[in-house]
């Protein structure tokens, strides 16, 4: 007996794939239905509008990212330096971008302000605070350079997003371990505060 797929999750996954391929603005509900091989009415049973589907996809993608980052920190055990914590966060990002490539592309390469509901904006702010907290703690310890934490987060995220974009269509999952380590070192160098002599 075959297990019936989780239709809401199938619709979210399908929407994320299409949003990554065509952008949110360039994706119509019938295209989602066709790719998911369901009737358009099936989508509206779970998501009453394109905006509702977009927000659900955004929240799923952001929540999964936050969960992957939190899990990477937990799996790595206690850390004593910002560099060690960065390595764990890098691992979480690479795992997320490898397992959820379409979601990563959707989050990092598109504008979302045209359709985000307050719940989605609050979740985005939670992820931003998570990242800014890492920067601020590193600045207090003297390991991370001075500057606006949000700008430094944008610098590091931008570098990672550029790497993922450069590696399309295979994505970061196809990057050899040695190259992944080199890119981790390069992005850390963007954040690291050099010791003064």
UniProtKB/TrEMBL annotation:
Q: Does the keyword Metal-binding apply?
A: no
| Domain (HTH tetR-type): residue spans on this chain | 5-65
Q: Which UniProt keywords apply?
A: DNA-binding
Q: Which PROSITE patterns match?
A: HTH_TETR_2
Decide whether keyword DNA-binding is in the record.
Answer: yes
Q: Coiled-coil annotation: which residues?
A: none
DNA-binding region, as residue ranges, is located at: 28-47
Judging by the UniProt lineage, the source's domain of life is Bacteria
Protein name as it appears in the record: TetR family transcriptional regulator
Which species does the entry assign this protein to? Answer: Kitasatospora kazusensis
């Amino acid at each position: 007996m075959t297990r019936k797929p989780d239709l809401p999750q199938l619709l979210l996954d399908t929407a994320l794939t299409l949003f990554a391929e065509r952008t949110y603005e360039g994706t119509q509900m019938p295209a989602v239905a066709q790719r998911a091989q369901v009737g358009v009415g099936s989508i509206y049973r779970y998501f009453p509008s394109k905006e509702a589907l977009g927000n659900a996809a955004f929240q799923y993608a952001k929540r999964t990212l936050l969960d992957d980052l939190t899990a990477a920190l937990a799996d790595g055990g206690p850390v004593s330096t910002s560099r060690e914590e960065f390595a764990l966060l890098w691992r979480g990002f690479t795992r997320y971008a490898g397992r959820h490539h379409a979601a990563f592309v959707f989050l990092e390469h598109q504008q979302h302000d045209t359709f985000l509901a307050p719940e989605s904006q609050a979740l985005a702010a939670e992820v931003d605070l998570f990242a800014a907290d890492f920067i601020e703690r590193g600045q207090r310890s003297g390991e991370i350079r001075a500057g606006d934490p949000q700008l430094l987060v944008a610098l590091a995220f931008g570098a990672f997003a550029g790497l993922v974009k450069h590696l399309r269509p295979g994505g970061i999952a196809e990057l050899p371990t040695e190259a992944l380590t080199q890119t981790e070192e390069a992005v850390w160098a963007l954040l690291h505060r050099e010791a003064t002599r």
